[in-house]
Each structure stands twice: as structure tokens, then as C-alpha cells.
What does this fold into?
Amino acid sequence: QMQLVESGGGLVQAGGSLKLSCKISGLSFGSWSMGYFRQAPGKEREFVAAVGWNDNTALYADSVKGRFTISRDTHENTLYLEMNSLKPEDTAKYYCATSRYSGDGFLRQIGKYQQWGEGTQVTVSV
It folds into this structure.
């Protein structure tokens, strides 16, 4: 059974950095695309970043491009999201997820992800 266990969230001042980790078990790590979404209170869950299984191409939401970096370690079966220059509007609960799809047309869509982690809270203070 696939499991996604997230860590690395916390409280940080604006301009600071955090690195989220998502340890994934129960799957063939290299055969799944992976992504991060986030959900702020009162808002819908939104796409943040993803990496495709077939070419490792990284995709980013415009709001985080240039500040966030998604990567994965196939030896550790872990997905990472490095977040720099954090802003108060980045405050949300961050979720990692896995997808059988690949490509820009699919990986930005929440409905194309099959398994989800429990989420980790990121709070950015002014």
C-alpha cells in the first residue's frame, strides 16, 4: 500500500526558507509523477509544483516560479520542495501527491493525482 509521509513544515519569517520532504513507500518510485499542492484556509487546494516520471521535467505555478524548487531522490524514495524567499501568501497546508500521468497538461490538475499525504503546515509571518 502506498504511503506518503510529509515533514519539514513550520513557522518562518517572510524572506526565509523551508524545505519540505515527502517520504514515499509502496510504489516503484521512478514510475510515478509527483507533485505538491497547497491549501490556505477558505481557499481551494492549488497546484504548486510537480515532476514528471518519464522525463523529470519540473513544473511550477507562476506564483512560486523562481522561488521554489521541486526535486526527488530515487535512492531515498523522497520528494522535496525547497522554498526560498517565502511570503505571507505562501502560508498554507502543503500536500504531496503521486500521479500516473505526466506532462504539463495533466500534472497541474488536482484530479490527476491518485494518492495524497496528510499535509504539513507552512506559516510565513510578516
About this structure: The mean pLDDT is 95. The two ends are 40 Å apart (CA to CA).
